[in-house]
Each structure stands twice: as structure tokens, then as C-alpha cells.
């Protein structure tokens, strides 16, 4: 089973990397670019076919390791 | 208009960060975790309502700045 976890910064949390990309894009001549926010994505292969268990496991992985839930949100998608 | 760009490593490109996460997850007691690959996600706000132009712009941004197309793939999604 394949899953994708997307970790993004919560609203209101400063994102200097996103800001730098914003400036770089406007420096390259792209007009009309508003806010840019950068996040992380994890593609994970899991054994087993139990979707409910997989989703619970993936959420536990996010809480324990993959995301800092103080400043980040995560989303779990199972393919 | 909001768009999300997902940049992932091409198959066959080594991903030491993903490997480290794999080991950390099995160290935390998560069984049945296969390959883990890490990528990046960019949430971009764009002015204008022309989806075709937005998609062309976003692809140009990936080619010029956001992705290293030698080793990375990108996907553009417009919300």
C-alpha cells in the first residue's frame, strides 16, 4: 500500500524559505505571485491491506516523528 | 488562485533523508514500513483567473527555480 503524507506550516507561522522563494520568483520576472509557503511530502510504502490500520499508523508516525504538531499540520492520503 | 507544486526525487536517485526516516520509524516500533522517499511541496498564491496561463507559469517556475529536473519530478495542481 502506498501513502503520501503532506506536512505544511500552520497559518501564522513564519516561513522564511517561502519568502525567499517569493523574492526569487519575482526576481526571475514572474508577476502576480502572492504568498509562497514550503512544506514537506513523504511517500511511504506500507505492508498489509488494512486501510484503517494504515491510516492510524500513519497518523501516529506524523505525531511522533514526521511533523512538529506545534507549528505544522499534516494530511494523510492512502493511494 | 491557489496552486500546489509537489517535487519528488526521480526513481533510482538515492534519498538518504528518506532512508534515515525509514530507520527512525522502525526504531520507533512501526513494522511493515517499506521504502520512504521525501519530497517538497510549494503552496503558491497567484493573481489572475486564467488557468492555462497559470499552469504554464507554474511549470516555468519549476523548470527555472523550484525543481532540479535532472534528479527531480514535479507535479502541478491548481485548486
Automatic annotation (TrEMBL), chains A, B:
EC number(s) on file: 6.3.5.3
Catalytic activity: N(2)-formyl-N(1)-(5-phospho-beta-D-ribosyl)glycinamide + L-glutamine + ATP + H2O = 2-formamido-N(1)-(5-O-phospho-beta-D-ribosyl)acetamidine + L-glutamate + ADP + phosphate + H(+)
Matches recorded under Pfam families: PurS (PF02700)
Compartment list: Cytoplasm
Keywords: ATP-binding, Cytoplasm, Ligase, Nucleotide-binding, Purine biosynthesis
UniProt main location, coarse: cytoplasm
Similarity comment text for this entry: Belongs to the PurS family.
Protein name per Swiss-Prot or TrEMBL: Phosphoribosylformylglycinamidine synthase subunit PurS
Naturally occurring in which organism (per UniProt): Mesorhizobium shonense
Lineage: Bacteria, Pseudomonadati, Pseudomonadota, Alphaproteobacteria, Hyphomicrobiales
